[in-house]
Amino acid sequence: MSKKIIKLLSVICFVGIAGSLMSCNMFNSEKKKDVSEENGPEIPGLTVTGGKYSFSEEEKLIVLLPEEEAVEYTISGKFDGQIKNDVKNTKIVLDNVELSNSEGKAAIYSTEKCEISAKAESVNKITSNNEAAAILCEKGIEFGGSGETEIEGSVKHGVKGSKIEFKGSGVYKIKGTTDGSAVNCNTFNIKEEKTVTLYLSDSKNGIKADDNITILSGTLYLSKLNYGFSTDTSADDPEVEHFVTLANCTIHTSSIKKALYKTEENGYTATDVEFIEE
Question: Measured on CA atoms in the order 243, 248, 249, 250, is the torsion positive or negative?
């Protein structure tokens, strides 16, 4: 075989291989694009994974659209607007995200019970000038995870929901205002053997519950508050049992202006609680 023929065959092989690689890359690119578009449109500065969603840039609104209950979304990046959920037990994992809303809406708003979890080693920040709260839920909210999250409502409350529960081993730093509470709810719970840490500050109340407050583990830092824990009384609602129950937890206090708690007469109990005044 002549050298010219060998050289020609080499060129043909090279072109064939290059073409195959280009076709493969184009296929993979189209495939990735299709997968991305299955969940929802691109959001400048923010990544949403785990399920379907819609996005309106004009309204600055992301609506989570899980096809069933208990779908887990992961959110990372930066976004000024609102994330809304209307499906029960949706889980929102915060992964180094900064959410804000400067137009009077909650940064996270759910009409159904949901869970908000801070991913391990993540640092997150959520702020809003909504008249109710930075995080607002019409039903219950469970806060979990092991990351760190700062929440601030600049008009009234930091967090507001019907039933609020903290679990996991994360750190939550929550601020409301002197007209509101860091946490506002009907019932508040931290169950036994949890290692969550809460910093509640710069508000009228650390936790204000219409019904009752139960804290059975964890560590709380209460500062720059009128009351650390506050509930309604029988004068407000005679059909509901009002109380503050503390057990097996550590509570640090500083700059409490009026009292640690305000609740029904004889409705306060503290068992095996370490109080540290700073």
Answer: positive
Q: pLDDT tens digits, residue range 141-169?
A: 999 999 999 999 999 999 999 999 999 99
CA angle 107, 110, 111 (to 5 degrees): 145
How many CB atoms are located within 10 Å of the residue 218 CB? 22
User: Would you give the DSSP letter of residue 40?
Assistant: -
Question: 168: left (phi > 0), else alpha (psi -120 to 50), else beta?
Answer: left
Residue 24 has pLDDT above 60, yes or no: no
Which distant-in-sequence residues (6+ apart) come within 8 Å of 245 by Cβ? 212, 213, 214, 215, 216, 268, 269
SS3 at position 225: strand
Output the average pLDDT for the chain: 90
Q: Which of 97, 115, 187 has the alpha carbon at shortest distance from 151?
A: 97
30: left (phi over 0), alpha (psi -120 to 50) or beta: alpha
**More confidently predicted of 13 and 108:** 108
The type of residue at 198 is L
The stretches of the chain forming alpha helices (DSSP H) are 3-39
What CA–CA distance (Å, rounded) separates 236 from 93? 37
Record the tokens describing residue 190, joined without a space: 């931290």
Q: How many CA atoms lie within 13 A of 4 on its CB side?
A: 0
